[in-house]
Structure formats: C-alpha cells, structure tokens
Design goal:
Blueprint lengths: L2 H6 L8 E2 L6 H5 L3 E2 L3 E6 L5 H15 L4 E5 L4 H8 L6 H7 L1 E5 L15 H14 L3 E5 L1 H5 L5 H18 L2 E7 L4 H7 L1 H5 L2 E10 L2 E11 L9 E6 L2 E4 L15 E2 L4 H6 L4 E2 L3 E6 L5 H14 L4 E5 L4 H9 L6 H6 L2 E5 L7 H15 L3 E5 L1 H4 L5 H17 L3 E7 L20 E10 L2 E11 L9 E6 L2 E4 L4 E2 L2 E2 L2 H94 L1
Parallel strand pairs: 3-7, 3-8, 4-5, 4-6, 6-7, 14-18, 14-19, 15-16, 15-17, 17-18
Antiparallel strand pairs: 1-2, 8-9, 9-10, 10-11, 12-13, 19-20, 20-21, 21-22, 23-24
Length: 581
C-alpha cells in the first residue's frame, strides 16, 4: 500500500486485512479484504467476478503461502483451470500443493423435488479446509446453486446458513453473485449486501464500441476505503485495478538537459528538455509531429540510452522507412536493442488496456525516453473521463521512473490561443510545442512555436521548420515589415537582401579603388612637387652661393680699390712734401 493511500484510508485498530494480490485493489481498501470476514462480489456476467475471486486465491497461495478452496457452483472446474492458463498462474501445480477445486454444480439431468440445504456441502468444504490448512475460500455464483429452491425465503435461509458457517470457520470468504441490474434480481439478493462485511460492485459497459470494466467498493465494515469507481483491466497476468491517487508524491527532479535532436530547438529551450519531464507536440496532420518525435528517440539512442517508440498510426517497419527519408535512421538502433518500436491499434483496446500495455513495455525495455505517437490514439477509446485519469497516471508512471516522455496529439490551430487541448493533456505537459502551417502566396510552410516550457527560459518566436534529406532544421527568424517570412518569400527576400548587399559591396569596392587611384595620383603629384621644390631649393642655393661669391668679389674689389686709393693718397702726399722741401 502506498503512503498516499495510507494517509487517505484510516483503518480501525483490530481490523485485520488479507491482501488479495490484485494490483490496485489493496490500495483502494487499505490492505485487502477483511480477514476472517465475507466479501461479496456483485456484478453482471462478464464483469470479472470469477477472475477476481480466483486471482485472490492464486495470489494467496503464491505470495503468502495460504492454501485455498474454490467451490465452483456454476462452471466446470476443469474449464476454470483451462481458462486461467492464459494468465500464467500454473494452476495444476498449485492445485497439487495449495489449491483445491470443488465442483459443486447441480447437473442438468438432476430433477429437483422438495427442498434441500447446504449442510452437506459445507461439511465437505470444512473437512477439506482442515486437511489442507486452508485460509481462503471462494463460493462462485452462490445464487446459481440456490435458484432451484425457487423460494426467496429458503434462499435467504441457506445464505444465512453459509454466513454463520463462515463466521465459525474463520475462513476468509469471497462470494460471487450475479446482478444484471434487473429489479427482480436486485431485490431478491439485496439482503446479501447487508450480510457481507465487504461489498464490491463490478460493472461491464461498452463505450465507443470498446469494452470497459469498473470496480467500486460500496461497503467495508470497520474500515475506510476509496469510494470512487475505478477502471479494471484484464491482461496477461490477470486483473488489475487502476487507482488514480492524488498528485501528492514528490518525483525525482533533475537539472540535466536532454537534447531534442534538433540543435536550434535545443537553443530555443535553453539546452533541451529537462530529464524526466513530459513533452507534448501538437499540430494539424502533416506538420511533422511524428518526425520530431522520431528525432528525439534517435537522439536518445545516439547518447547510448534506451528508448521506446509506440506508434498508433503506422507499423514499425513503416515508421523506420518514412523516417529514413528525412535522414532519421531508426533501424540501426532497433537492431542494436537500444530502440523498441511497438505498433498499437487504437480500436483494439480501451485506454486502460493501452496504459497497461505501455506499462508492461516500460517494465520490460527499461527506457529512459518514451514516445507515444499519437497520444490521442492511446486515449481515444474509453471516454473523456477515462482519458483524463489515464494521462495523469501515465505522467506519474514516467516521472516516478525519471523517464522523459514525449507524446504527440492532433490539435487544431485554434487551441494554441488557450492553455488547453481536446484531451487536456497540455495542462499536465511540462513542455508544449505546437506545429502549424503558414500559407502565403500559394505556398504552405511548417512553423514551430514553443507554447510553454515550465522552469525554462524559452524563445517566443515562430521558426520555420524544414525537412531535408539530412534531417530536420529550423530557420532563423526572418521578419520584414513586421511579418515573419517563410518559404519562397523568405528566400526571395533573402536573395534580394543578398543582392543589395552585393551591390553595396561592389560600390564600396569601386569607391575604394577610386580613392586608391586618387591617393596614388595625389601622392605622385606631391612627389613631383617635392622634386620641383627641391630643384627650386637647389637653384636658390646655387643663386645664394653665386650671390655670396659676387659679394665676396665685390668686397675684395672694394678693398683693393680702397687700398689703391690710400696708396695713391700717400704718394701724392709725399710728392707735395717733397715739393715744399
């Protein structure tokens, strides 16, 4: 029994319960049926009464080493054993050691006259119980044995006789009785529910052409129990009851990111999905939901992790072939054993049975990543109420095992405007990615949007999704005039932009060459002017030197003339003096 169930179900001290071994039922009742008490199983034909009772005996013998007696009052014991062989219980072996099957049917050839009682039958059962040390006993279809009495008073008398015998024997008893919903049958055996310590109602209905079974505990003396009706599934190992417990458990949380298989989508999600979370991919048909799912599974296998891919649309070989056309190679991973491809058919099972099959596949393959494509195919049959409970249990199943779960669902574009979906899966998905079509200028292009990603900073932009021979890619956002362009329009705009950039590049080159030419010419002119200037400077220097020479000669000549003039003066003076003398 889980901790959640222990909190919900308060059991009085002194109430001892005997586990049935039926998965889910012991959670509902807080431990099983009352030990030493009587449990009445009521329901219409085909709802699982005999299976419930027989499985309780079998699990008692297998798990708890408690011998039991099965008193068959309607069906041949040989047929019961043969029918149970499909569940793998090995009843012949248990029959030799811990189980005893008593065929107590009244043969059809026997003509009943007068009245009879069950004293002899009960005495025989008591003797056998002491001989094998039985702890459990089943009376299958007690109402069938008593029907020949054709007297409600006598029938009630014999049923009370059985009740008193059981109280004295100390055996834990399970009694099955038919109730097809008719007023006469319900009234005739309604008192049995007052007599029993525990009453279990089983229902069998058909919805959307799918068989649905439910179980409800309507009475349990001295004990609390979960009062709702719970779905029943009958699988390869027997009956199990689906219990939807309140979401109070703490799941293992991880900060590790796992790749989506698409690098740019990883970037949009700040590194990918959180490990152990649930992912929903929605979109109209043809938007590549399955392709994104397969990409995720392939990425897991490339990391060396085990993955499970459940397809409700295509067969396993068809999935491998179709994905290979866009560069997603699943077949090698199937051959290596890392990838398990399973094909399911929506109409073959109810949603509960599909969940049971998925749980068995997970238990067998031990994957770290699980893909269901589409999830709506798994939840399609069984009604909306059943689908809501199943997707919650599926989420718990994967989270408790730290499995990263990815499901796809067919969804109309209108649902992207609200946080919801036709089957309400989006409300429990941690990451929701929506794929859609953008139709412009006679062209249809795929678009990807991250609607939400809990605990993750993510892109709010619409990216174009493109399928190529090498795989899936996301184009960068290209906007023009406030509109995101895709496909041919994006290519045309991109080509025009590249052409414009090329024109600018060519113009810049031309301008650069012109400037370089002018710079060269200018530099050449400067060099010429510099040479002319040097020549002028040299000429000026020559003139300066000539001027200096001329001035020097002129100065010398003046000196010479001065000296000559002075000499002439001195000569004249001397002559004059001589004359005077």
């Amino acid at each position: 029994m889980t901790m959640v169930a222990e909190k919900l179900i308060q059991v009085r001290p002194g109430i001892v319960k005997l586990p049935t071994g039926i998965k889910g039922f012991d959670v509902i009742t807080g431990g099983g049926v009352p030990r030493g008490g009587t449990t009445l199983l009521v329901g219409a034909p085909g709802c699982g009464k005999t299976l419930f009772a027989l499985q309780t005996l079998v699990e008692g013998a297998r798990q708890f080493s408690e011998p039991g007696i099965f008193v068959a009052l309607e069906e041949n014991t040989k047929r019961i054993i043969e029918n149970a062989a499909t569940f793998g219980w090995d009843l012949p072996k248990l029959e030799n050691e811990k189980l005893f099957f008593l065929d107590a049917r009244i043969p059809n050839r026997v003509v009943t006259t007068g009245t009879f009682d069950l004293i002899g039958l009960l005495a025989g059962v008591e003797a056998k119980a002491k001989a094998i040390g039985a702890k459990r006993v089943v009376f299958d279809s007690l109402d069938v044995l008593l029907s020949p009495l054709d007297s409600p008073v006598l029938e009630r008398q014999e049923i009370y006789r059985v009740h008193e015998w059981l109280q004295e024997s100390g055996l834990t008893a399970l009694i099955t009785a038919k109730d097809d919903g008719g007023a006469q049958m319900s009234y005739r055996y309604s008192f049995m529910q007052f007599m029993a310590d525990c009453v279990v109602l089983l229902h069998h209905t058909t919805e959307d052409r799918v068989s649905l079974r439910e179980l409800q505990v309507s009475k349990y003396r001295g004990s609390g129990f979960l009062e709702n009706a719970f779905p029943i599934t009958i699988g390869s190992s027997g009956m199990s009851v689906a219990v939807t417990e309140p979401n109070q458990a703490d799941y293992p949380m991880s900060d590790e990111r796992v790749s989506t298989g698409i690098e740019r989508l990883d970037t949009m999600l700040s590194g990918g999905y959180y490990r152990g979370t649930s992912v929903l991919i929605t979109g109209v048909p043809g938007t590549a939901k399955s392709t994104l799912a397969a990409t995720f599974a392939e990425a897991a296998c490339q990391r060396g992790e085990r993955a499970l891919f459940v397809s409700f649309d295509e067969g396993a070989s068809e999935v491998s072939r179709n994905m290979a056309s866009v560069g997603i190679q699943l077949k090698p991973h199937v051959e290596s054993g890392l990838l398990r491809l399973y094909t399911g058919h929506s109409e073959e099972h109810s949603a509960e049975e599909h969940l049971g099959i998925l749980a068995a596949l997970i238990n067998e393959h031990k994957p770290t990543c699980v893909v269901v494509d589409p999830l709506s195919g798994m939840l399609k049959y069984g009604g909306m109420r059943s689908a809501l409970g199943i997707q919650q249990r599926l989420r718990r199943l994967t989270k408790q095992a730290a499995i990263t779960f990815l499901g796809t669902s067919l969804l109309d574009d209108s649902f992207t405007q609200v946080e919801g979906s036709p089957i309400e899966v989006s409300t429990v998905a941690d990451t929701w990615i929506h794929l859609s079509y953008v139709i412009r200028a006679g062209e249809r292009n795929r678009a990807l949007t991250v609607v939400k990603a809990r605990g993750t900073k993510h892109s709010n932009q619409v990216h174009e999704l493109i399928l190529t021979d090498e795989g899936v890619t996301l184009e960068d956002v290209y906007s023009a005039g406030g509109e995101v362009l895709m496909g041919t329009r994006r290519n045309a705009a991109d080509a025009a932009e590249r052409a414009g950039q090329e024109r600018i590049r060519l113009e810049v080159g031309r301008k650069r060459r012109e400037i370089h030419r002018k710079e060269s010419e200018f530099n050449a002119s400067i060099q010429t002017l510099q040479r002319e200037l040097e020549m002028q400077r040299d000429a000026l220097a020559d003139l300066d030197r000539e001027q200096e020479l001329h001035d020097a000669r002129h100065f010398t000549e003046q000196q010479d003339r001065l000296k000559l003039s002075t000499a002439d003066s001195d000569s004249l003076l001397d002559s004059s003096e001589l004359a005077e003398v």
